[in-house]
Write a structure and sequence with these properties.
single chain, alpha+beta, 2 domains, elongated
Length: about 240
């Protein structure tokens, strides 16, 4: 069993969160304690998860405890990582949990400017969100925006990742091993610089608004931690697939 202890908003309180690995079905747990509760063997003021109720959605605990103190995002990723190591999530489900963590960071969100081009392309790089006007022949300009100075950049196109069917994700071929730049609410993760576009006409305002709700940039402060967790999960899935052959 692992535990993280955090100060509460009330100085007499502490938040304790962790992963109970001793259970048949490992589970998150969270408690609100008085500062000296453990010394006095007091019962928690609030207890969520653990015991007979296996809980694998960390945000249920975050929601309950949030009024009593902040749970830093690196701590949330750490807990998700710990549970995934003993009770692996399906890949898309893991992505959805990571997206729920990123959604709490204002820096992860696209801010739509008032002067948004009528048709646009969205880029996610290590510098964050970027918006560029659509061009009819976009492949070469997009390659230079995402990978300045590099020649013959080839892209993988992915569709069906958002609730707007016409939106395509463009990532560099073999980008899976690169640090993550974006995670979608659907659970899709994008390694390396990524573009989002409507392939034949650019993104409309409505499509940009959809992406602002469904796509989250991975800030530098979380990128290494999130990328290690994700790439380990991908490697594990590949090993399982080999075993099934």
């Amino acid at each position: 069993m692992s535990r993280i202890s955090l100060p509460g908003t009330d100085p007499t309180h502490r938040l304790v969160l962790g992963v109970d690995t001793a259970l048949l079905d490992p589970s998150f747990f969270g408690m609100l304690l008085t500062e000296d509760a453990e010394e006095r063997a007091d019962e928690p003021l609030i207890w969520v998860g653990g015991g007979n109720a296996s809980l694998t959605d960390l945000q249920q605990i975050v929601t309950v405890l949030q009024p009593y103190g902040q749970i830093p995002l690196p701590n949330q990723v750490r807990l998700l990582d710990e549970l995934d190591q003993v009770a692996p999530y399906p890949l898309r489900e893991l992505g959805r949990h990571l997206a729920a963590i990123l959604a709490q960071d204002p820096a992860s969100h696209l801010v739509i400017p008032n002067d948004l081009p009528p048709r646009s392309v969205l880029l996610l790089t290590d510098r964050g969100w970027q918006i560029h006007p659509w061009q009819d022949d976009l492949d070469e300009p997009m390659a230079q925006l995402l990978f300045p100075g590099q020649q013959d950049v080839l892209f993988d196109e992915r569709s069906g990742c958002t609730s707007s069917p016409a939106v395509l994700l463009f990532t560099r071929e073999e980008a899976e091993a690169l640090p993550l730049m974006a995670i979608l609410r659907s659970g899709v993760a994008c390694g390396g610089p990524t573009a989002l576009a409507n392939n034949d006409s650019g993104l409309s305002l409505i499509q940009v608004q959809v992406l602002a709700r469904e796509v989250f940039w991975v800030p530098e402060a979380l990128r290494a931690q999130v990328s290690v967790l994700w790439h380990r999960a991908v490697a594990r899935r590949e090993e399982w697939e080999k075993d099934d052959e």
